[in-house]
Amino acid sequence: MAADAPLHPDVSPLATLLGTWQGRGAGEYPTISPFGYVESITFGHVGKPFLAYQQRTRGTDDGPPMHAESGYWRVPSPGRAELVLAHPTGVTEILEGELVATATGLLLDLRSTSIGLTSSAKDVTATQRTFGVDGDTLQYTFRMAAVGEPMTHHLEATLHRTPASG
Amino acid sequence: MAADAPLHPDVSPLATLLGTWQGRGAGEYPTISPFGYVESITFGHVGKPFLAYQQRTRGTDDGPPMHAESGYWRVPSPGRAELVLAHPTGVTEILEGELVATATGLLLDLRSTSIGLTSSAKDVTATQRTFGVDGDTLQYTFRMAAVGEPMTHHLEATLHRTPASG
Question: Labelling B140: which of A24, A116, A133, B28 has CA 20 to 30 A away?
């Protein structure tokens, strides 16, 4: 996903996301025990009007893989963002919402407009995600309605921009 | 996505897919002019019960990126497969169907059970995909019902397994 093309102007409001972010998060949900995780998120582009997004978590720095998700981020019109995500748990998410540029980064407030489930997936019915970038820090929250629970806080994490490599 | 863990037994029926495939395809649809493309598909794993899937096409070998998609392949029960896909065009696909092991590879016949669309995406309503692996050759077809057209052939491609690198 190394970009030898200029960033597409449609996604210039997301430019600060490009690169790799690493950090730690905490998860909870009424149906499970609270847990911590380490996380890596990468945003790339190929000159087209989207960013490619890859996320992975582990329980500890050298632990086995925990969650992963991948997909694409779009800016359909100024001040709006769309996320198009696939999960290895058999879930797809489409989220839409506001994109606000701040003096030092950006804020996103997104809600699911479509959730897809394979026959073997857990019953997720709706999700909400916020993302905030302030300089070299990225924070997000993730809420979901799932397995009979109403919209409930599930994840929060703080990541830091890693130095560009190669 | 380099695997230092053994392949999860649930996805062992998909083991022949692991690695990178490259080849050429042809596209058509009632609403567009026919086109050719070159394609690269990569399947990886991290020891969990799914394969990670990344696909990219270009119009020519050194042309700019055309399409891309990413997601995960699952085997929920013997003889069944689930695909969980995100597209940068604002579309998510969940497909389910039969997985058949052959003497020299496998066959998959999958139909969409859920399509998600962002507000700015084209109107895709259903998709069908077949995949066949015969030794070091992978062939697929892709049909879709979209933009008012009924289920119609859209893509076919033939790819070859590339030698494993480092």
Answer: A116
